């Protein structure tokens, strides 16, 4: 008879076999792939980027909307890719397009188990909240904070698309028996959505600076990751302010490691801190609903 640990390990191995087949699928949209290749070349001009990105008006609109986000606080509206490059820089633009390409690759049709619009909105708001928090504490790369926050729940989208029957079982366990979402994931798949997200990002050669915070955004102490703490706090704020409907995160907690990093050990400190971000985070919503 299998022990509980052996049972979870067996389920994990079965899940990883499915994920291994997902990794090799040519799922990244062509224009995004071409753009990322151009951004990897230091001799690429803004004109060359504009020519490729303009082939995909949806991608162009998303990039310009992100550049015009209230978090950048620009006085002049960004209306061209050339100016977006000036505002964002090549590295951050590459990060944004990489995140959008992963999100597009695993885009799902909405059903009663996962609302794709709410999922995308939650992802973007957590990404922008992460960027704002990173900037405010002087973290050296707020662009990485955006991408880690944006992709923090990508494992859920993967589960919903490629492990759909298991995702249904997880949801039903949560709804009928009151099991915590991550506990239900572990029981059904032997893995949690953060582990699944890390597995895929690692196979897709995302840098550890981004994949590890995705893995530890519920428990950043596992890697002593400041960026993991930033994403954990951003995720917590997004849910605490009820900016989106994210039932998979209804029980998200502020990790003790995060509370210590941000000096939020007391509940009153948490409440005051979150209140200070309330207006700017709410202002994001009108800018990003199109992303879904």
**CATH architecture heading of the largest domain:** Orthogonal Bundle
Order of helices and strands: HHHHHHHHHHHHHHHH
Total number of beta strands: 0
Give the distance, in angstroms, between the N- and C-terminal Cα atoms.
46 Å
Q: What is Rg?
A: 19 Å
Number of DSSP helices?
16
The parts where pLDDT drops under 50 for at least 5 residues are none
**Helix coverage percent of residues?**
55-70%
Q: Which fold name fills CATH's third level, the topology of the largest domain?
A: Hypothetical protein af1432
CATH homologous superfamily identity of the largest domain: Hypothetical protein af1432
Strand content: under 5%
**Global shape:** globular
Q: How many discrete domains?
A: 2
Q: Sheet bearing the most strands, described?
A: none
What is the average per-residue confidence, as pLDDT, rounded to a whole number?
84
Structural class based on helices, strands and sheet pairing: mainly alpha
What is the CATH class name of the largest domain?
Mainly Alpha
General description of the model:
By secondary structure, the protein is mostly helical. The chain folds into two domains: 10-23 and 109-291, Hypothetical protein af1432 (Orthogonal Bundle); 28-105, no CATH class. Helix content is 67%, strand content 0%. It contains 16 helices and no strands. It has helices at residues 4-23, 30-39, 46-53, 57-67, 81-88, 90-105, 116-136, 142-150, 154-162, 164-177, 181-189, 193-203, 208-215, 226-240, 256-261, 267-288.
């Amino acid at each position: 008879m299998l022990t509980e640990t052996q049972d979870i390990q067996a389920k994990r191995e079965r899940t990883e076999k499915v994920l291994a087949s997902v990794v090799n699928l040519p799922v990244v949209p062509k224009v995004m792939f071409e753009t990322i290749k151009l951004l990897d070349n230091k001799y690429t001009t803004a004109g060359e980027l504009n020519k490729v990105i303009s082939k995909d008006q949806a991608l162009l609109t998303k990039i310009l909307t992100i550049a015009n986000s209230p978090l950048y606080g620009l006085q002049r509206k960004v209306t061209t890719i050339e100016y977006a490059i000036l505002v964002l820089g090549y590295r951050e633009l590459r990060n944004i397009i990489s995140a959008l390409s992963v999100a597009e690759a695993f885009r799902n049709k909405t059903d009663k188990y996962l609302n794709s619009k709410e999922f995308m909105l939650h992802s973007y708001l957590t990404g922008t909240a992460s960027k704002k928090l990173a900037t405010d504490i002087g973290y050296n790369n707020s662009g990485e904070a955006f991408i880690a926050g944006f992709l923090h729940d990508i494992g859920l989208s993967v589960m919903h698309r490629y492990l759909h029957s298991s995702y249904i079982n997880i949801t039903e366990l949560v709804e009928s028996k009151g099991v915590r979402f991550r506990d239900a994931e572990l029981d059904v798949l032997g893995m949690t959505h953060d582990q699944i997200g890390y597995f895929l990002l690692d196979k897709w050669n995302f840098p550890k600076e981004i994949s590890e915070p995705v893995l530890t955004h519920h428990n950043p102490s596992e890697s002593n990751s400041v960026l993991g703490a930033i994403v954990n706090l951003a995720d917590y704020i997004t849910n605490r302010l009820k900016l989106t409907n994210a039932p998979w995160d209804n029980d998200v907690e502020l990790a003790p490691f995060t509370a210590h990093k941000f000096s939020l050990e007391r509940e009153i400190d948490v409440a005051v801190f979150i209140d200070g971000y309330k207006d700017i985070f709410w202002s994001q919503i009108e800018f990003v609903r199109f992303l879904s």
